[in-house]
User: Which sequence fits this backbone?
């Protein structure tokens, strides 16, 4: 089996099964010798671009249907240290003046997150959204959850198209929807404040963008914008509240900004009250930003010592523990492909068929 090929023989078997083709039928469709096709099917011959081009021309399938999921190796988690984040810093100018200092934080090809650490380099003397040094963007496609550190102002356009200012401090948070114009500035003369801007894709992915291109855009717009959807505020601002209920749990979970546009996403600050061995696991993509030095994290069975500013990405279904007392961490959770509907359908497929679902390289009937 050729495992490092970008196209997968396993997917080829699934395709011909779905099309109700035996190997002899499929080889005839593609004008191939049946023995040669069998070698493609068993991974003894590499499926190349010419093979895929011919297949998508003959069959009602997409190029992406042939992609080998094992082509790019990945792990359950990824860690980016503060020192490595610092090395990525770059200053962005707006209107000819230094405006933001950007730094990368942890990113992974399998994650929906494109998060940045951003220091605001423009000082404002007032909280007016009309300050002359402010430079507004046009908004962006990705959703954004933001955690504030220091004296930072958040400016945005509200639903009435009016400029607004949110005066933010450490622990405050916000959500902003796609394509809402906004900007940030510092109320501190030394410009020491910064934000952790967790931008991410949710339901509107590249796949949806591509589908829109392939359909009648006028009809799509008619169907969408004549639906009776309830309008939502596109911006949520939440001031930090460290209210604590009496509980025996070692974790104090503080809910940060949330919005009904992304009902399933969660934004949390978790304070570890005492040394903890509670195992956590869920079906979300998770982004973690460490807010304390000497933070101790266990991922699967590996212990990881973290410093403030370290960032971690966790794949869905990854076991982890927040270990050390009197430490805290920022957590953003975004729904994965394993949403409740998918989990329910997998349940009905059944435990016995689960292995077959993952690696089914047999014909759908016995000869």
Assistant:
């Amino acid at each position: 089996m050729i495992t490092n090929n970008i196209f997968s023989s396993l997917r080829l078997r699934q395709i011909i099964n779905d099309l109700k083709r035996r190997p002899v039928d499929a080889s005839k469709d593609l004008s191939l010798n049946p023995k040669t096709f069998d070698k493609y099917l068993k991974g003894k011959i590499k499926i190349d671009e010419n093979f895929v081009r011919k297949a998508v021309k003959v069959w009602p399938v997409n190029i992406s249907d042939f992609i080998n999921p094992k082509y790019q190796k990945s792990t359950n988690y990824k860690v980016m240290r503060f020192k490595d984040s610092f090395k990525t810093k770059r200053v962005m100018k707006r209107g000819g003046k230094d405006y933001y200092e950007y730094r990368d934080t942890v990113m992974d090809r399998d994650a929906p997150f494109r998060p940045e650490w951003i220091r605001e380099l423009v000082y404002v003397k007032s909280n007016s959204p009309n300050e002359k040094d402010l430079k507004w963007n046009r908004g962006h496609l990705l959703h954004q959850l933001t955690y504030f550190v220091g004296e930072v102002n958040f400016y945005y356009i509200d639903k009435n198209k009016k400029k607004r200012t949110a005066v933010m401090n450490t622990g405050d948070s916000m959500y902003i929807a796609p394509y809402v114009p906004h900007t940030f500035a510092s109320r501190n003369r030394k410009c020491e404040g910064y934000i952790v801007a967790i931008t991410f894709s949710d339901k509107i992915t590249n796949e949806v963008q591509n589908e829109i291109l392939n359909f009648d855009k006028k009809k799509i717009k008619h169907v969408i914008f004549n639906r009776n959807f309830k309008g939502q505020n596109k911006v949520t601002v939440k001031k930090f509240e460290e209210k604590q209920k009496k509980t025996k749990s070692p974790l104090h979970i503080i809910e940060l900004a949330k919005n009904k546009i992304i009902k399933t996403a969660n934004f949390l600050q978790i304070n570890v009250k005492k040394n903890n061995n509670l195992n956590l696991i869920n079906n979300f993509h998770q982004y973690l930003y460490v807010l304390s030095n000497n933070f101790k994290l266990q991922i699967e069975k590996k212990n990881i010592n973290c410093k403030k500013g370290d960032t971690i990405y966790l794949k869905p279904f990854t076991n982890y523990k927040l270990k050390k007392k009197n430490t805290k961490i920022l957590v953003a959770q975004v729904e994965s492909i394993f949403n409740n509907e998918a989990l329910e359908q997998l349940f009905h497929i059944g435990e016995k068929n689960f292995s077959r679902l993952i690696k089914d390289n047999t014909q759908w009937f016995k000869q």
Summary: Residues 77-200 form a domain with the Jelly Rolls fold (CATH 2.60.120.10). The first strand starts at residue 77 and ends at 80. The CA atoms of residues 4 and 73 lie 9 Å apart. The mean pLDDT is 94.
